[in-house]
Design goal:
Largest sheet: none
Order of helices and strands: HH
Radius of gyration: 22 Å
Number of strands: 0
Structural class: mainly alpha
Number of helices: 2
Shape: flat
Number of domains: 2
Strand content: under 5%
Length: about 80
């Protein structure tokens, strides 16, 4: 029980499910890192043309701009109380 007498668990403490989730996410992160290094080494002989680098840069900029724009809409919607 908490100090206030309620039966709700205290915020800020992880239970067993929280630790299992963190372990699973850490495993996924480790696997993704291993896979990225493996894929990078497998493509060591592949060259990218100037046009390829331009399209990669444009893709990164477009994706970042889209994410920023969507987050701006979320904040705008929250401030104007549209998301009830």
């Amino acid at each position: 029980m908490n100090d206030n007498g309620s039966d709700q668990p205290r915020a800020g403490r992880l239970g067993v499910a929280g630790w299992i989730t963190l372990a699973a996410l850490a495993g996924f992160l480790a696997w993704a890192g291993w896979y990225a290094v493996h894929a990078w080494n497998a493509l060591s002989g592949v060259g990218i043309s100037a046009a390829g680098w331009v399209f990669i840069l444009l893709g990164v900029l477009f994706t970042t701009g889209l994410g920023a724009g969507l987050m701006a809409l979320v904040f705008y919607s929250n401030r104007k109380d549209f998301d009830r």
